[in-house]
Each structure stands twice: as C-alpha cells, then as structure tokens.
Amino acid sequence: MDLLNNIQAGLSQALGLQPIFLMVAGTVLGMIVGATPGLSSGMAVAVLLPVTFGMSPLNGLIFLTSVYVAVTYGGSVTAILLNTPGAPENAATCLDGYPLTQQGRSAEAMGTAISSSAVGGILSYVIMLVGIGAVASIALKFGPSEIFLIAIAGVAILGAVGNGSPLKILASGTFGLLVGTIGIVPTGEWRATFGDPFLAEGVQVVPVLIGVFVVSELMQMAGRDYIVDAQVKGQQSLTNILRAFTAPVRHLATVLRSSAVGMGIGLIPAAGATLAAFASYSLTRRLSKDPDSFGKGNVSGIVAAESGNNACSGGALMTTLVLGVPGSVATAVLLGALTMHGLQAGPQLVYQQIPLVYGLIMAAIISQIFMVTIAIGVGYGLSGALSVPTRILIPLLMLFSLLGAFALRNAVFDVNLMLLFGAFGYVMKSHGYSPAAVVMGVILASIADNEMIRMFQLFGGDWYLEFFMRPISLGILVLLVGGLTHRLWYRRGQPSRFDMVDE
C-alpha cells in the first residue's frame, strides 16, 4: 500500500503542465546534444544546470534528467548513420548499426535502437520504482578492489567484441589505459605531462572520441562519393523505422538480459553506460548461436547495446539518490543540483522527500514517450544524410568535430589532440586494432588508477591480497581470467574467423 501511495504521489507531481513542458524541452535539447559528435550528457547537464536556479527542486531535476537520458537516444542515430557515436555510450551501437546502414537497412537499425532504448530505460525505472532502497544497497559492498577490477574488465570485455584479434583489441585497450593515466594523480605528482598544463588535467575523452571515431571515419569516407554504395543506399522510410519497433519483442531475452546488466552496472559508482553497453553486447555475442555475425549487421547487437546503456541510467540515478554517490558524470551534476536546492542525497532522502523522489522516477518513465516520438523524427530527418555527397558531408562533419573538440576547454590543444587521434585511429583501423578499445581504456583509466592508489594507501604492501580475500573481488577476477582464457583458446582453435579488420 505504501508503494502505491508513493506512486500516486509521484504521478500527481509529474503530470503537471510545467513538468511535462520541461520533459519535452529537456528531451529536444538532449537529442540535439546526443546527435552532435563530441558533446556528452555530462557536458549538456553541466551547461544547463544554471537554467534550473529559479525552478523548484523537482522541476529542475526533471529537466536535467530528461536531458541526461535523451543524449543516449540522439547519439545512437549518428552512430548508426555515420559510424559516429554522439557520446561514448553509443560506441557499441556502431559495431552493428553502421554495417546495417551500409546494407541499406538504416531505417531498420534506427527503429531497433529507438525501441530498445525505450524498453531498457522503462525497465530500469520500473525496477528503480519498486526497489530503490533494497537494490541500491548492493553497491555498498563494492570497495576499491572490486571497482578496480570492474574498470579493467571493461577493457577486457572488448576482447570478446567484434571480429578482430583479441590480442590486438587488448593491446588497444591497454594503450588507452596508459593514455588515460596521464595528468596529475590523486597523490599530487605530475605524470607524463611534459610540463604542459593542458595535460595536467589528463587526456580528455571528447577529443579522443571524436578523433578515433569521427575524424578517422571521415578519412576513410573521403575515398567514396557517398557514405554507402549507391546500389545499397537506403531511403528515408518512416514505415521501416516503425516496423522495426517489434525488435525488442523478437529479441525479448536479449532485452531483459541486457537491461539487467545495464541496471547492475549503473548501480556501481562511476562504471557508466559505456561499460554497460559493451558488457551487454559482449554477453549477447557469447550466448548467440552465430557469434561471427556480430560486427557485420546483427540486429541483436543493437538491441543489446541500446537496452544496456539506457538501463544503466536508472541504476546510476538510483545510486546517486540513495547513496549520494554519482553513478556517472551527468548524475554527479544532478547531485550538485540537489545540493544547490538545499537537499542532501542519501537514504533519508527517499523517506523525507517522497513526492520528489517518486515524482522524478515517474517523470523519467513518462518522458520515454516523448523521447521515442522525438527520436523517430530526428532519425527520419537525419537519414537523408545518406544521400548527401561526401564532398559536402565531410566538411560539415569536420566543422562540427572541430567545434566539439574546441568547446570542451576553449583550447586549440584539444583540436590538435583530436586530429592526432584521428590519424592514429585511421592507422589502427587499417591494421586491425580497435579504436573502441582505446576510447574505453581512456574512459576507465582514471577509475582504475584512483582505486589502485586507494588500495596502496589502505593496505600497503599487501594490497594484492584484497583481490583474493574479498569474495566479490575473487568472483570478478575468476570471471575475468576465465573469459579471457576461453576467448584466446577459441581464437587459437578457429583463427580464420578473426582475420577481418575490427572497425
């Protein structure tokens, strides 16, 4: 009865005219940000935070949360059409989304992504609605050893993704981890900065992301007249987008499994939707009867990636509200919004601010309707980009890429970094290495680095024993080593299947 009363209280707060207007406005802005390479959900929420100064706490959170969730929707559109993920969490969608576009099935891919995103998001918020107190307590059991292993596993997971050599993928991820450790470490030392103040802040993810995904793709695209071959080029088709909405039903097990993975990873502080997407994709590929079709246009890959990364938002939001620990960069800004309005995140918030907490959850569920509608329009409109000659499209995308890299810190340094990683990404693709693994490594490096330093500080010379003395750490370690061993052994037994270049 208490749950029903809480849901009713939340609905009464979320169904007002102003909250609905803010949902729509936040969704539109988030979709635009998501479809723009280089702009992330964290950046969007941070920039728009001052807009909420004059709003009530609930309305402000509804607006920012709508922006946060909609970014992932928008990013999937460009990931599918242009092999250009709008945000890191959409990188896994490129693996099968873009091959479908090259086959003239872009509308099917977009419809699959939109519907899977909606189902994954709704499932995560429903779970959040019924178990916000009990489920979040799981995250309390994770210490530095568990979080470190999860960060490392995020890179190792990519060894099972795509059709490239697992050793090359792991080498790419290791390089990304090394790049991500550049900068001032928590203990105060300057690491591999060469005295450059821009490197003191670390290598930023956005220039790396734009470089290895966008610029390298534009370099490859320069040799073609159109994005895809004229014989297979798809046309704008609203019917095909809507017809693909049956994909979550046809791949129900994948949706449920990936949503559970995404929700679970979202509960882990700082793990993020990128890890959720790749973990869901990897698991789906492993359980598939035809794993070699992944990376070549398998619809299940899109279903897994998009349901996983959207389900992660519910877990991250739950961790933020209940534990006061941000589950992602964007939720860290949401945590700041709570503080700005004089509210303290934590277990007491759920009991003392029932209308706010349940109103936010109900608004997140309701906003999925607007997100699906707007995403269909955005996908249909942008699908016309396939018929634009590359001589026009490449300069436009390059301009947006330059602006996206420069806007991060208003620094030419980041533009140069983007161009450097663009050339590097082009060479990597040409030799079978994984740009996605590099990005994943850069994203997770700071997490792994910080948690390793914490273990040194807490346990001294016996830090490594924590991996074996804590049951959760030991379980993660066994799964990690077992998964890598199995993958390498599979590679040894069937080498011919993995000779393709992993893009």
Give an overview in words:
The chain has 503 residues and is an all-alpha fold. It has one domain (2-498). Helix content is 72%, strand content 1%. It is built from 23 helices and two strands. It has helices spanning 2-14, 17-34, 41-48, 57-82, 91-102, 106-136, 144-156, 166-180, 197-200, 205-221, 238-243, 247-250, 252-267, 272-287, 299-323, 329-340, 347-352, 354-382, 390-409, 412-430, 435-459, 466-469, 471-493, and strands at 183-184, 190-191. A two-stranded antiparallel sheet has the order 1-2. Strand 1 (183-184) and strand 2 (190-191) form a beta hairpin. Helix 1 (2-14) packs across helix 18, helix 4 (57-82) packs antiparallel against helix 6 and helix 4 (57-82) runs parallel beside helix 18. The longest helix is centred in the first third of the chain and has 31 residues, at 106-136. The chain is globular and about 60 Å long. The termini are far apart.
